[in-house]
Amino acid sequence: MNDKRMKNALEAIARRGVPENTNLWPNISTRLERKSLMQTLRTRPIVAMLIAILILLALSGVVYALGKVFGYIPGVGLVDQSAPIRILAEPVTVEQAGMTITMSKVIADSTRTFISYAMAGMPVDEHGFPVCTSIPELRLPDGSKLDMLGDSGGIAMGRRDGTLSYETDYKYAPIPFGTDHVTFVFPCNFPGNDDSALEIPLDLVPAPPGFATPVIELAVTAESAQNKSGLSLERVLELADSYVLIGKFTDAGDLSAPLVISTSSVFDYMPSIKDANGTPVFFTVREDLTSEPIWDVAYYWAYEIPKPVAGPLTITVNSVSIRKDASAQFQFDTGAQPRVNQEWKFNQPIEVGAYTFTLDTITFTGKGYVISLSYEALPEGATIWISLLDNTAAPFQFDSGNETENHAGNKVRHTITLGTENPPPTGSLILVLQLDESLPIIGPWTLTWSPITTTP
Amino acid sequence: MCKDNVEEQQAIQRLKDGDIGGLEFLVACHQVKAVRTAYLITRDLGLAEDVVQDSFIRAFRAIRGFDATRPFEPWFMRSVVNAAVKMMQRSARQVEVGEDADETIFTELASRVESVESQVESIEVQNQIWDAMQKLSPRQRAVVVQRYFLEMSEKEMAEEAGSSVGTVKWMLNAARKRLRGLLERSEG
Questions:
Q1: Strands A343-352 and A428-449: what pairing?
Q2: A10, A397, A406: residue with CB nearest B149
Q3: Which end of chain A has fewer CB atoms < 10 Å from its terminal CB, N or C?
Q4: Which of A342, A366, A348 minimizes the C-alpha distance to A425?
Q5: If you measure CA to CA, which chain A residue comes closest to B24?
Q6: Which one of B31, B124, B165 has the shortest CB-CB distance to A22?
Q7: pLDDT tens for each residue of A279-310
Q8: Between A415 and A150, whose confidence is greater?
Q9: pLDDT in tens, B2-16
Q10: Are A120 and A113 in contact (CB under 8 A)?
C-alpha cells in the first residue's frame, strides 16, 4: 500500500516533468542514419568531396534569404514580418470549473503560431495526477486542428489545496491568413464543467508597429576553415543594440573520432570571444535562435554580442570532446556443473583501449555470476560496460545486472552481479569489456567576423 | 499496440534482421516510461532524453544478442537506469552524500511518504519528495526509482544487491519499517 502510494507520487512527478508526447524517434533515426553517413565520409573521401560541392551549391540560397524581413521576440525567436504578425486582441482569462487559465501570448506569423498560457487550479486525481495531461489543441473555425510543432516543457508548481499550477508554451503550425479567430481547447472531461472539454476562443489582431525588435540580416562575412571540422557562421542578425551571430560547429569527419554532441553542447563548448584589441567580449547564448543539433554531425550556436564592436571579432573554441570506444574479450570455462559460491581467481590483465583492467574473480552464485574487476580510476568521461555471454549465436540474457564501484584512492574495485530466474549458462563463457570514452581534444577552432556598419 | 508481446517480439526480430522499423516500434512503446525513469534520476529533461536516446542506440547495437522471447522492457530499463546513474556520476552536478547521511535522508524521505499517506498525495508533498530525492546520490536515487517507480519486486532487488546496494536495501527496509510503525500508530 505504501509502495503504491510512493509509486503514485513518483509517477506524478515524472508526468509533470516528462510530457506524454515525448518523441525521441526523429533524433534517434537521424543519429543512426548520420552515423552511417559519417562512417562513409571517413572511409570514402571522394564521396565527402562530392557532398561538399553539393553543400556549396545549396549555400547560394543564403543570399536569397537576405531579402526577408525579420523581427525578433525574446523567448519566441525570429518572426517573419513580410506579412502582418497577428497577436491576441486582448489578454484572455477564463475561470471555469475551479481553474483559471490566462492566455498570455499568441503570436502568429507565416512560420508558426506561438502560444503561451498559465493554468492555475488544475485538479489532480486521487493518485495526484493532473486530470488533464493531454496536449491542448488549436482549432480553426472549421474544426480542423493545427499540428503541434513543439513545446518548452514549462514550469509547474504544486499548491497547498492539492491543485496544480503551471506556465508553458506551445508552437503550432501557422494560422492561415484571413483567419483571425481560433479556439484553444483542453481536450479533457473536466469535473464541474459538465464533463466536457474546456474551449477558449481567441481573437487575433495585427500586431502594432514595433511589436518585434527590428532585425536586419547581414551578409555572412566570416573567415573559417573550409571543409574542415570547426566553427562556421550561417547567419548574422543586427538588432538595435547588438549583433547575433548564428552558426554551427561541424564534425567534418577529420577529427580522430566522432564529436560528442548533446542538447547542451552550446553550453558545454562555450567559446571565448575577443575583439581586435584582444579584449574579451561579453556575450549571451540565445537558445531561442538555435536549432536542434544534427546528431553526430553538428551542434548549433547563437551568441548575442552588444554593440559597439571593435572588429574583427575572433570566436575561439579551445576544446571539444570526441567519442571513442574499444572492447576486449576474455574467455573462460566454468565446467559443466559449477558449485554454488565457486570462485575462480584470475588476476588477469585485460587491455581495453588505452586502459588496463584486471579481472580479479568470477563467482558462481547459483542464480548467476558476480564478476570483480580492479583498475586505475578512469578519467571523467570514460565508462566501462561489462557483459557475460555464452558461446552461442543468441547469447543468454540475464534478468538483472547491478553494478557497484568502490573507490579507494586511485584504485577502483568494480563488481557486477548478474542474476537470472532461469538456470544460468555454464561451460565456455566470454567476458566482454566495452569502453566508451568521451575525450577532450584541444583545438583551437576559430572563426573571425567583422561587423558591417548599418543603421537598423 | 505496445501491450502486445507478440508484436514486440516481431519488432525485435525485424530489428535483428536489420529493419530499423523494428526499433521505431520499440522507441514508440518504451520511450515515455524510459525518459520518466531517467528524469527521476537525472532531474533534467534534456539529460534524461540524451540518456534514453543513447540507450536505444546501445540497444540497437546489442540487439543481435538479445533473446527475442524475453520481455524487452526489463532489459532496456536496466540499461536506462545504469546509464542515467553513470551520467550523473560523471557530472559535477551530483550531490555527494556520505554513508552517515544516508539514514537521515531516508528518514526524511520516509516522512514525506508518511505525508503522502495522510495528505492524500498533494502536489506539495510530491514536491517535498522531489526535494528529498535531490539529496540522494544518483545510485540511491536509482534504487528508489527501481523499487517504487519501476516496481521491481523485493526479490529482484535482493538479487541485484551488491555491497553498496546492500546499504541501500537496508535503507529501504528502514524506510518501510518507519512507515509500518506510522501506520500501526495511526490504526491504533
A1: unpaired
A2: A10
A3: N
A4: A366
A5: A25
A6: B31
A7: 999 888 888 888 777 777 889 999 999 998 88
A8: A415
A9: 666 778 888 888 887
A10: no
Segment 66-125 of chain B within 8 Å of chain A by CB: 66-67, 70, 74-75, 78, 82, 86, 90, 113, 116-117, 120-125
Cβ of residue A380 closer than 8 Å to a chain B Cβ: yes
Phi/psi-derived region of residue B18, left when phi > 0, alpha when psi is between -120 and 50, beta in every other case: left
Is A406:A379 a contact under the CB 8 Å cutoff?
no
Position of cell 514508440?
B28
Any CB–CB contact under 8 A between A36 and chain B? no
Cell of A313: 571579432
Using the beta-carbon criterion (under 8 Å), do A29 and B52 form an inter-chain contact?
A: no
pLDDT digits (tens, 9 = 90+) for A161-199: 667 777 788 889 999 998 999 999 988 877 766 667 789
- All domains in chain A, ordered by first residue: 2-11+75-206 (2.60.40), 25-60 (no CATH), 215-320+443-449 (2.60.40.10), 325-440 (2.60.40)
Q: Which residue has the cell 558449485?
A: A339
- CA separation for the pair B115, B124 (Å, rounded): 10
Which of B 2-41 lie inside 8 A of A, CB atoms?
20, 23-24, 27-28, 31-32, 35-37, 39-40
| Interface predicted TM-score (ipTM) of this complex, two decimals | 0.74
| CB nearest B39 (choices: A17, A127, A164) | A17
Q: What distances in angstroms separate CA B34 from CA A259, B78, B136, one per listed residue?
A: 25, 10, 20
- Predicted TM-score (pTM) of this structure: 0.55
